[in-house]
Amino acid sequence: MSISQRLMGEVGAILAFAAMATTAFGGSYFEKDGAALRGYDPVGYFTENKPVKGSPAYQVAHKGSMFHFASQANRDLFKADPARYAPQYDGYCAYGTAAGYKAAIDPAAYSIVDGKLYLNYNADIQKKWRADIPGYIAKADKNWPTVVTQTKVYD
Q: Strand runs (DSSP E) across the chain, as ranges?
């Protein structure tokens, strides 16, 4: 095998690995089964004051992640102003971010603070989060530039 053939094979292997990594990690938001926020509608938290399951029939890509919505109206609201509706810390657990790591979320464990959506790992973590929301937001904001680069997600 010539050096150029060997080099081409190595480049091909690297490109294949990069493609798998991109597929495995998806977009920038927390995803499960190819949908951001486990398929829940981020707008529903604001318009209905509760988690609302979205539908693939009403979806939009944002920052490389696919968001599902309960209605065309919610999808249109999100498309018009994603910064208003998208969850903080790319939809990862806000408490985990405050502690310095990425963690999955339970769509039912959420808080809206100053017009921003924060999600938590589960109800027990949400209870801890609620004990000092301003303090945890300050820690999470400080940690996010480092946490966002992590590839491991605690589920």
A: 31-32, 35-36, 55-62, 65-69, 102-103, 106-113, 116-120, 153-154
Q: Dihedral (C-alpha) 56, 61, 65, 68: value to the nearest 10 degrees?
A: -30
Q: What is the DSSP letter of 78?
A: H
Tens digits of residue pLDDT in 18-30: 333 333 345 789 9
Residue 95's CB is within 10 A of a number of other CB atoms, namely: 28
Packing angle, helices 123-130 and 133-147, rounded to 10: 110
Higher pLDDT: 34 or 110? It is 110
Q: Please, are residues 90 and 101 in contact by the beta-carbon 8 Å criterion?
A: no
Q: Positive or negative, the Cα torsion across 152, 93, 55, 71?
A: negative
Residue 80's alpha-carbon distances to 46, 57, 62, in angstroms, are 15, 18, 12
CA gyration radius, the chain? 18
Model pTM score = 0.82
Q: How far apart are CA 35 and CA 26, in angstroms?
A: 9
